Amino acid sequence: MSSKNIETDASLDYQVPLIRGNPTFASITESVSKVTEAKTTKEWFVLFGFFSSLTMIMIGSIGYLIWEGTGIWGLNNPVGWGWAIVNFVFWVGIGHAGTLISAVLFLFHQKWRTSINRFAEAMTIFAVICALVFPGIHVGRIWAVYYFFPIPNQMDMWPNFRSPLLWDFFAVGTYFTVSFMFWYTGLIPDLATLRDRATNKIRKLILGVAALGWRGGNKQWKHYELAYLLLAGLSTPLVLSVHSVVSTDFATSVIPGWHTTIFPPYFVAGAIFSGFAMVMTLAIIARKIYNLEHIITITHLENMNKVILLTGMMVGYSYSMEFFIAWYSGNPYESFAFVNRAFGQYAWAYWIMVSCNVIVPQIFWFRKLRRSIPVMFVASIFVNIGMWFERFVIIVTTLAKDFLPSAWDYFSPTIWDVSLMIGVFGLFFTLFLLFIKHLPMVAMAELKGVLPQADPHFGHDGHEGESK
Amino acid sequence: MMDNKNVLAVLAEFKTPADLIHAAEKVNKEGYKKYDCHSPFPIHGMDDAMGEKRSPLGYMVGIVAFLSAAGMWFFQYWTSAVDYPLVLSGKPLFSYQAFGVAAWAIMVLSSAATALIGMLVLNGLPRFHHPLFYSDNFTKKVNDDGFFVSIEAHDPKFNPDETKSFLESIGGTNVELVVPDDEG
């Protein structure tokens, strides 16, 4: 159980402490809370200034879009879905890793998740906010988006519940709301910790209201723990269902290249893959800046790399299976769609996708590379890029050459496509910076609960408190 | 100490989760009802030690889940097949398979809302005032690394002096009578 042992033991057996340096309950409170209490650093302001400027670009781009219409994008006749949908699917996918970490790993009693779950859940929420920007604006007539909601309107019409686009609205809307409620539930005890430590009046007031008067009594924990378990149980199927529903936007159409049954599992694997890469990118930066290396340890990162390797191969399998089925179906349109993806006008995008998503993660077969911070940082960036291109390949190459050669065209983005994409990245990082500055980025109460000394049997052998 | 009439609760601190569980067993055995054990994280085995029943939240969520899924299914049937029937892409008016997605989404949404709101209601939260917040030792430690037993003055067995000496006898430290601050 020495710290050397922890360095080398990746098995994450229950006996191995998950956190290094033998922390006490108080030292966890201290190292996590002080991030939110310390004076804001100059670096934070510089980053915040940069990313909020990008957010302004997003707002400007949306403003111009509403004024002028979707014609400002590079859309053309066969390619009616462009970067807006690419970005939407990309961001929804990113969110899935957060839910997997917070809900699925919770149900499977993977205690290592406690160091990264708050962080990953925040990422989920911000990613889904970024995703939701797009369906809101790509409809063109933004003033009519309330048609999505099943509310009585002046035309006496109801939404078409048989349409996958409406399923998508319900699935993603639910996903955001449920993720937010789950996140907030987890935050309540930690907000109470911050409240009790607050020294100035405004902090006391805001945190006091946000913590809802939590006092940590077991009569509260009893309901709280069950609520948390239920929320985890409800979020778990969302990991599978949300991106499956997103994939039906494509799979229920008759376009060759989209109309396949592999889409739901393929999208889910890709979502978890890209999400873990994004958690990795963010966690590496945050643990370094805020000295949380003893809480988010190299073992946590290694575990995430294993998930990246696994899901990367699932994605690679899907790519090859799509080709096999296209050939095996004997359908010339289907076969053409895939040959066109790999060797047609967008071959460059296809091979960027394959290199980033299938080849790069293979380095994680090697333990040394799995535990090397620079290697995993670069690899996570590659995966993020690759997964963006995956959506681009699926959406744009498929539409650009559909059934009729006379309708074929080439999609090129305009400056507004680019500005909107960059702007939404700005929004994501702006929200993330606000989060790490103002909220506890590690779930303190949960982390304390997995320390060895939190076990009532710790140092008290023979006690039967839990034996019933 | 102050006049005993103002006492709202008695509070005792314990060192470790194990000590708190032992204390909870003893307080429960002594016959106190309006007491609670406070800790910065949930402690396994505490419900048994305190003789607490299982939370009814699961049943609440289960009922809401069933009703909301059925309700949303019916709502989609009513809007698509009754109130404004419209044939779209040749699909049946009552496409129950297609209605599964939104029914599922609404089920998850309302169940999650029930879990969160139900938890708050059962816990009596939000509540921004509580006698225990008068204790500086309590607010300083309870969400950090302190383990406390509190016995409230509502308890029929409560008697400031006896309860205090009882908590001291079972190993509680920093035992204090919680009284309102002067500032109110």
Keywords:
heterodimer, A: mainly alpha, 0% strand, globular, B: alpha+beta, 2 domains, four-stranded antiparallel beta sheet, 6 helices, elongated
Description:
The complex is a heterodimer of chains A (468) and B (184). Chain A is an all-alpha fold and 468 residues long. Chain A has one domain (9-140, 179-452). Chain A has helices at residues 3-8, 25-37, 42-68, 83-107, 117-137, 164-197, 201-210, 218-251, 263-289, 298-328, 332-343, 347-359, 367-370, 373-400, 415-438, 444-449. With 184 residues, chain B is of the alpha+beta class. Chain B has 2 domains: 4-54 and 129-178, no CATH class; 57-122, no CATH class. Helices cover 46% and strands 12% of the residues of chain B. Chain B contains 6 helices and 4 strands, in the order E-H-E-H-H-H-H-E-H-E. Chain B has a 4-stranded antiparallel sheet with strand order 2-3-1-4. Chain B is elongated. The mean pLDDT of chain B is 83.
How far from one another are the termini of chain A? Answer: 30 Å
Look at the structure and give the mean pLDDT of chain B. 83
Number of helices of chain A: 16
Low-pLDDT segments, ≥5 res of chain B: none
What is the beta-strand fraction of chain A?
Answer: under 5%
Class from secondary-structure proportions of chain B: alpha+beta
Instruction: Give the topology string of chain B: H per helix, E per strand.
Output: EHEHHHHEHE
Approximate shape of chain A: globular
What is the radius of gyration of chain A computed over CA atoms, rounded to a whole number of angstroms?
24 Å
Helix content of chain A: 55-70%
Strand order of the largest sheet of chain B: 2-3-1-4
Content-based structural category of chain A? mainly alpha
What does the oligomeric state look like here?
A: heterodimer
> What's the alpha carbon Rg of chain B, rounded to whole Å?
25 Å
| Global morphology of chain B | elongated
